[in-house]
Design goal:
- The complex is a heterodimer.
- By secondary structure, chain A is mainly β.
- Chain A is built from no helices and twelve strands.
- In chain A, the strands form three sheets. In chain A, strands 2, 5, 6, 10, 11 and 12 form a six-stranded mixed β-sheet that branches. A four-stranded antiparallel β-sheet of chain A has the order 3-9-8-7, with no helix packed on it. Chain A has a two-stranded antiparallel sheet with strand order 1-4.
- In chain A, strand 5 and strand 6 form a beta hairpin.
- Helix content of chain B is 0%, strand content 55%.
- Chain B is globular and about 40 Å long.
- Classes of the chains: A mainly beta, B mainly beta.
- At the A-B interface, strand 5 and strand 6 of A face strand 5, strand 9 and strand 10 of B.
Chain lengths: 113, 113
């Protein structure tokens, strides 16, 4: 079945540091890939997505590239801010008519001034 | 657009009591999902509906849990009787047909004493 593995946290970075959160997946077919972000006390929000191989999703300075050859969708940001402190979830859309998402366990990011 | 609405935001109850969580999806969305989030298990899909019909309830933990969607704008998740291990944050999410991006509500934090 489908699965998502993302790096375990928590991750603590200083402001303006470079961020990478690794995500790999196992799936049949050609799934869509997502990064969701959850700020404290809130629901999950879509951060970015990619629907096919070599697509790059980007939003708010975050980027992730759909790599089919390495089954990866790593999240990156060149310079993090305190306001980026949140939990980040990698997710895989099964497509094929079921529209379920399979989520990773989440990675908590704390950015300190 | 008001987004996905959930009520109540917080619920504290005693073991053995009935709990009802409510969700109003985004207007026009065909799919509705109920998730549970805990520190131990992360984000788990409990059940999802398409056009008000339950499609997959394999994630519902046991018979104490039930979900209904009487119309396109309202769904409930009921736990009867509740137990302390049901304490979690419960999220509702909705999506359009043929699009696997999901929009999450703010969640209901349930505490069973």
């Amino acid at each position: 079945g489908n699965s998502v593995t993302q790096m375990e946290g928590p991750v603590t970075l200083s402001e303006e540091a470079f961020l990478t959160i690794n995500c790999t997946y196992t799936a049949t077919g050609y799934p869509s890939l997502f990064w969701y972000v959850q700020y404290p006390g809130e629901g999950l929000q879509l951060l970015l997505k990619a629907t096919k191989a070599d697509d790059k999703g980007s939003n708010k300075g975050f980027e992730a590239t759909y790599r089919k050859e390495t089954t990866s969708f790593h999240l990156e940001k060149g310079s993090v801010q305190v306001s980026d402190s949140a939990v980040y979830f990698c997710a895989l859309g099964s497509g094929a008519g079921s529209y379920q998402l399979t989520f990773g366990k989440g990675t908590k990011l704390s950015v300190i001034p | 657009d008001a987004g996905v609405i959930q009520s109540p935001r917080h619920e504290v109850t005693e073991m053995g009591q009935e709990v009802t969580l409510r969700c109003k999806p985004i207007s026009g969305h065909d799919y509705l999902f109920w998730y549970r989030q805990t520190m131990m298990r992360g984000l788990e899909l409990l059940i999802y509906f398409n056009n008000n019909v339950p499609i997959d309830d394999s994630g519902m933990p046991e018979d104490r849990f039930s979900a209904k969607m009487p119309n396109a704008s309202f769904s409930t998740l009921k736990i009867q009787p509740s137990e302390p291990r049901d304490s979690a944050v419960y999220f509702c999410a909705s999506s359009f047909n043929y699009v696997d991006e999901q929009f999450f509500g703010p969640g209901t934090r349930l505490t069973v004493l």
